[in-house]
Every structure is written in structure tokens, then in C-alpha cells.
Amino acid sequence: MHRRLHGRGALFDTDPPGLAPRLLGLRPYQHRAHPFEHPAELPFVVLTGARGLGKSAVLGELREAYKGHTPVALVDCTERQFAGPPADRPAESWSPVAQALLVIAEQLAEPVTGAGRITFPRLMSGLVAVAAGGWSDADSERIRREVERILLLNESGSWISGFAGRWAGKVAAKVVAAATGTGPFLSGAVEATLESVAEGFASRRHQKASVWYRTYPNAGGNAKRGLILLSGHFRAGGTSREHAERYLVRALLADLTEAYTGVLPRMQRLGRPLVLLDNAQSAPGPGLVEAVLRDRSEGIADQVAFVGALRGDGREALRNAVRRALPEVARRSEWTPDPAVPSSRALVVSLPPLSPDDTLHIVGAVCGEIPVPPQLPHATHRLTGGNPLGIGLLAESAAQHLPQVSSLGELLTADVRLSEDADGCPAYRELLDRLVPADRLDELTVLAAAHDHDSACALAAALLPDDFGPSDVRALQTRLAQEGLPGAPGRFVGDPFVRTLLLLRLHLRGTDHGAWRTAHETLIAHYGHDGAADAPERSRYRLHHELALGTTESAVAHLRDTFPTLDTRTWLRTLCFIASAPYFHAHDAEGRDFTGRGDRRAAVALGRTDAEHEVPQGVDAVLHLRVRRLLHAVWQLADPLVLPDPKVCDRLRFELEQLSNQRPAGNALLWRASRDWPAAALAGRLLDAPGDEDDPDDRSGEA
Q: Which of the 8 DSSP states describes residue 67?
């Protein structure tokens, strides 16, 4: 059973078996075989989702579950070692794919229960030929260093370490002694490699591997010529390099297949080898994935279980893949590829957010014996939307700061230490570092307040450099979609959790909150043209931003004046949208933004300020005060950064009940909201206006 992850049992369960044991034929954390779901051909599994959904955590758990029981390799495609060649190695003899194959083979070679090391003579020979393409002006020590690392892929026991050194020296000596010119250098290295394989290994398996490159295109049955052609194609770059890289991937898989053939290996090795590719959207990920899928579609079979993690939904790269949500693969994957389409060999599995119960268990596990406010787990789930990274980091902040803090906003702004030797950093900054593209953090911080392309352009003109124009706004929208951040009508940044973090950063950018004020004032002006045809729609955006700056009068007046005439469902939705305005800790007695602390919304919602509030002349005072109390109640209860106040919930219920009596035509919807909204707030759910499926003509008043 999986030990640290929540909500991912569909992958790791053993009874009934999840996806991983069915594909690998091995129970997690056990050296016990399990029947294969796909015994002949297995899918290339790709986990998809936005940042923070736990893709990397799943791959790490898979490695821990099977390490030591079957060969396992894990590479993160965003690591620096794949970004570019070492300083002393020419670019024409290096690529992210070749580097990844070396790293993968080094990990797969490690001994496992009941079986020794796997050797990679085919891959080793090809990597030496590729490296040799950059040795024309190299010193002997660098050649020896590169050759020795590649050579160790063929090490089957400790006795060969001395042989590895001798072989590296022999190849280096041949290369250094060769005549000038690429051909002789490369020829000498390849010749030394093939001779050493033949001399050092007498087994039929290794002899077979030493001549595997005879079948390379145009090699004419000559392994040496095949390796020279491979090296030349690699150095040529472009599609020629991609061709050579596919052959190197094929060499890796052929070596693994060889290790699992024969009676003795099958008796010793249980399950399938496992290769894990994290952040597969970055090089070398696409090249590795395409090479495996293409070979499988062409009938070149292998028995390696690949699991990749891809940011976004992967629809561009894997257009014809079979797609499933995680719960759908809990018992069977129902995967059947299209023989003519390589990408159909992939099984794309989207990772869902965690459930409220998962959040409850995580907070409880992290906080241990520390008393946790009973509403904190539910409020955490509402804020994060079930994002595992957000839940875990907020739980850690709670463990370090309870009971001194009283809101999720304070947990986000408090410093959190993720390890004993690390300095503390505000939790919201830690989260933003991992949830949004680092190179666009400043721009997203500003544009998070926007609602669409036009309002984003207005903000960019006011707060971003002059060279960030409308085309950059569109490019950023496209990038957010590619990274898997969901869109939402009326929001430039659709994910509520990410948007809340960005707006918090915008608010805290200066002690005077100047950027915060400028952003909302810009949008107030942008939506301030009431003469437009869509004036009612624009007015709610304007009132939303006025409320974000603490100006409540216009919002109260609008909701008061439209209550008797506006469609009830529309009125409730307008109330929800206006009251979704962010409200951070720095507001004065009138609710306006400043550098102090305090939250006056509860006092207004509970009617404690009614006596001192001056009602405008000529309006219904009872309706005015009721709408004012209702607005502040919804504003606080819809705030994802505070824990719900039961007293405010009771008052919200009462105010909506009273409004339902004043509006017979909308009685049913207002009555339903009076029941649903307080319950949702206390349970950590969003406050939503009744949907279109509700009967607008219901006059019964029943909930």
C-alpha cells in the first residue's frame, strides 16, 4: 500500500490492484508477482495536470515502491545536467536525450532482489561513438573520463572495474595517437570499442550485442560502419540527430529485453523494469517519449514500463492518446491503441485534486498533537481547491504557527521552514515559486486582478514595462492554458488558489500598497463607462474593484436599487461576484486599505455599526441596512483566507430569509440561498448562486 500519498490509491492499491502493480506485474513495496493487465504490449503512461497536483510526488513514490525489487530509473527533465553540455564537451557530440539515456541506464543497472546488475553493451557502444564525435581536439584525460563513465554501463560485477580503466585508457590512447581529422579519430574510438567488447566478453549475449549495429541503416552488415554512421547523424543535428537518438533509445530497450530473456533471467527477475520521466514537457522528455511510441507503433516491442509526468494536458504532443481520469484506471485501464497512430500508444491519466477528507487527514498528520481549529481543514481545502502542494505547505505552516495565528491569510504570510537547515520564507512565496512560471511572476502578479484580455491590457499599460503589450498578454494567456491552469469566465487567471496567491503578492509589494491601489483604480476607470451597451455587466466589475479598495457605498446602493427589479438569480450572482473582491488584513475602520490590521466585516454583518451608519435620504432604510449587512456577510464568508464565523453564517441565513419575504417572485431562490450558503461556508465550500437547473418559477418556498 502507498505510504505517504493521499488520494492516489488508483495507482498504488494492492487489493484490488491499482494501475502500477497491473502494469509492472509486481506488488508495490513487495517482491511478489502480480498478473499483467497488458501482457503483450503495455501503454506509455503519462500523468498530466497543473503544477502542484503531485505528479512528481507520485513518481517519487513509484520509485520508492519498486526500488530494489525491479530495475527503476527516475530522471527529472528540468535538471541542469540536461540543459546543456559540460563546458569541455562540444555541442555536436552531446544532447539531452543522450545524457538522459546514460543516466537512466546507470540507475537501471543497479542489482535488485534475486538478480544481479544489468549490462548495456548496445547502448554503451552507441554512446561511445557519439562522444567520440567531439574528441578531435580533446586531451587524453577528458577522453578517459568520458569513456570510463560510459564503459561502466557494461559492468556486471566488481571485478570489471579494473578492466574499465584499462579499456578507457586503450580507447584514449588510440584516439590521441590517431591522425588529424574527424574520420580517423572516430574510427579509432569505434574500433577500440568493438574490439574491447569482443575481447572482454565471451558470452553469446555480449558478442551478439557487439555486432548489433550491423543493422543500422546503410551499415551494410558492418557494425563499425554502423556506429560511424550513427555518430555522423548525431553530429549533423536536426532530424538526422533525432534518427540517431531513436536508435540509441532502441539500444537501451534491446539491452533490457536481452536481460529478461532466457530461462534463468526470467526465473530471477519479477515484474518489468520501470522508467520514470518527470517534467516530460522539457527536453529530453519529448524525444524519449516520441522514440518509444514510434518504435512500438512500428512493431518493435519492449517490456519496459514507462511513466511520465507532463505539465498541462499534453493534447498537442499526444493528440491521439487514450485519455482517462485517475479514478477510471483504478480497476482496468481499458487501453487499446490504434495500430497506425504512434501517440495512441500513450495512456494519459489526469491527476485530480484531493478531496476534503484527504485534506483533513493531511492537516491532522502534519500537525500531530497540535490543536487544530475544527474549520481549518475545510477552509484549507476551499482555499487550495484540493491542490496537494498547497495543502501540505499550509499544514506545515499551521504546525509551526498554531495557535498564535487565526486565519489562512496569516498562515500564508508567516515564514515557514521546510527543513531544519533552511531559512524561513513566507508560505505564499514558497507556493508561487512552485505554482507559476518564475519568468512571468511579476507580470502575473499584476494581471491576476484582470478579467479578460482588454482589462489585462489596461493593467499592463498602467503597471508593466512599455514593451509588454497586447501580444504579450495573449501569449501569457496561452502559456497558462498550456501549463494546465484552468480557465474561468471573467478571470484572467482562472485558478482561484493561484489567483489568491498572486493578489496577495500584489497587495504586499510595497508598504504603502501603491501597486494594489493603482491596479484596482485602473480597472475601476476601465469599467466606468456606464454609457456602453453592456453597462450592467461592466458595473459589477467596477463595484468589485471598488470593494477591493474598501469602498462599499456604491455596491450597497446598486444591490439595494436592483433588488426589486432584477431577476433574482442574476441578483444573487451579482452579489456573489461583487463580494468575491479580495480583502486582506490592512483595512481601516471604514474598510479602506491601509497599513494596519483588522477586519470590520463581521461587525457590519452582525449589525453592530447600523446605528452609526448614515442611511441615504429617500431610500428604504430597512432594505438598505439589510443589503449592507448581507454584502458584508457574503464578503467575509466567501473570503478564502479567513475561517467562517458561525455567527455571521446565522446572520446571513436570517437576512436572506427576510429578503425572501420581500420578494415573492424570487422567494424560492432566496430561501434556497439562505440554507445553502451558510452550510457551504461552514463546510468549506464555495458560495454559488442557484444554477440554471433550479426552477425559477417555483413559488412554494421549499428548500
A: T
